Amino acid sequence: MEMGLRADPEAVRRLASYWAILEKDAVAEGFLGPNERGRILVRHLLESCALAGFLGDGSVIDVGSGAGLPGVPLACLRSSATTLLDASERRAGFLRELTRRIGVEAEVLTGRAEEVARTDLRESFRSAVCRALASPAVVLELCLPFVALGGRCAWLMAPESLSGSPRAADDGTVREFGIGLERLAGVAEALGGDDPELVALEVPGADTRRWAMIVNKVKPTPDRYPRRTGVPSRKPLG
């Protein structure tokens, strides 16, 4: 692939099948907006694939998977175990049928992250990923509890959420989300993570620079996190 990722013919076939299903079914079902139809390949598939280069080997959980982004493209490319978690049974049903149709092995779970993170899945994954899930502080509270020590949380950032250049972001901010990187580092530390790192993604055909945020898990997440269902979103840390 042009992005520097290794993709065998079977992986390419699975990705192409997934693309066709997103174009036809995900938009019709309302899992992707009607305006997304013409930009599914670049904005959704290739951007998700670009995240693979930052994950390494090992199991991954996609929190708030929705239409399967970024978890399904990652499962197409990687041989590691993949879990897709979504709070909606309707979306989970779509994901089960989707993965069956394209021939991808992935476990699909229905549940709220705040609750599932208190089961035996807590701190059991090498990586937790997401896309368009919530603000950065909420993402960390929902995702880091799933990550084992030495693993990482990685999520795709909307370009409009960043102000200016990477240097400007390093200086303070992800303004649309109301929290800068310095404050986000404090949230990450409280949840067992190291300093957040903003990384540029190589996405062929993208009309703007695409970004991901990476936080490594360096100590166990305190038992009190995540807080009760709905609290992280209503009262973000930081």
| N-end to C-end Cα span | 39 Å
Mean pLDDT: 88
Radius of gyration: 17 Å
Question: For the record, what is the CATH homologous superfamily label?
Answer: Vaccinia Virus protein VP39
- Our estimate of the beta-strand percent is 15-25%
Can you tell me the CATH architecture? 3-Layer(aba) Sandwich
> Describe the biggest sheet?
7 strands, mixed
Report low-confidence residues grouped into runs of 5 or more: 161-178
CATH top level? Alpha Beta
The DSSP helix count reads 9
Percent helix: 25-40%
CATH topology term? Rossmann fold
Number of domains: 1
Oligomer: single chain
Strand order of the largest sheet: 3-2-1-4-5-7-6
Q: What structural category arises from helix and sheet content? A: alpha/beta
Shape: globular
How would you portray this structure in words?
The chain is α/β, with parallel strands linked by helices. It has one domain: Vaccinia Virus protein VP39 (Rossmann fold). It contains 9 helices and 7 strands. It has a 7-stranded mixed sheet, sandwiched between helices. Strand 1, helix 3 and strand 2 form a beta-alpha-beta unit. Helix 1 runs antiparallel to helix 3. The chain is globular and about 40 Å long.
What is the secondary structure topology, with strand pairs?
Elements: H1 9-28, H2 40-50, E1 60-63, H3 71-77, E2 82-86, H4 89-102, E3 107-110, H5 113-116, E4 125-131, H6 136-143, E5 147-157, H7 166-170, H8 181-190, E6 197-201, E7 210-216, H9 231-234
Parallel strand pairs: 1-2, 1-4, 2-3, 4-5
Antiparallel strand pairs: 5-7, 6-7
Helix pairs in contact: 1-3, 2-3
